Amino acid sequence: MLDRPVCLIGLRCSGKSTLGLRLAAALGIPFHDLDHELALDWARESPHDQGEASPAGELLARLGEPAFRALEAQSLTRLLSGREPAVIATGAGCIETSAVRELLLRDTQTLWLRVALPELARRMRADPTPRPALLGGDPIEEIPIIAARREPLYREVATFVLDCGSDPLDRLVERSKALLFRN
Hints:
The protein is of the alpha/beta class and 183 residues long. It has a domain at 6-33 and 85-180: Rossmann fold, CATH 3.40.50.300. Helix content is 52%, strand content 11%. The longest helix is centred in the middle third of the chain and has 16 residues, at 65-80.
């Protein structure tokens, strides 16, 4: 039995939402996607948007990274406030905020979904989700630069590392459960 939430961390298109949903179902606990939650929080707190939840990528482009990261930290704090077992797919860049890293270290078990950069690029090309450039260029070409910046932060907060090669989703769920319950 899990005694606290499990947060999935990793770069864009590493499979946090896809694996998170299946892992939560396999464990019989709630699933939360932080990008979705922060969009809902923004809609509730922003009457000028008349309650419409914008996708996280759109909010990132509209608000800019500092304001987006602050909203992301607020939403994660809310999700973790009860400390009940759940699986949370975090935003790829949330670990760039020191307060979020502290939350992850203190209140969760984190599972870093590590994926080879060529596979991430392939997945991003195939994914219709809007993903704004973070450095002003092509989001796919930015992957190695973003990875170099974030990987030490993922390593810092990771309770477990799951190398996500070409394993099918069911196998990744089983490997995740084995890591979480290995004690």
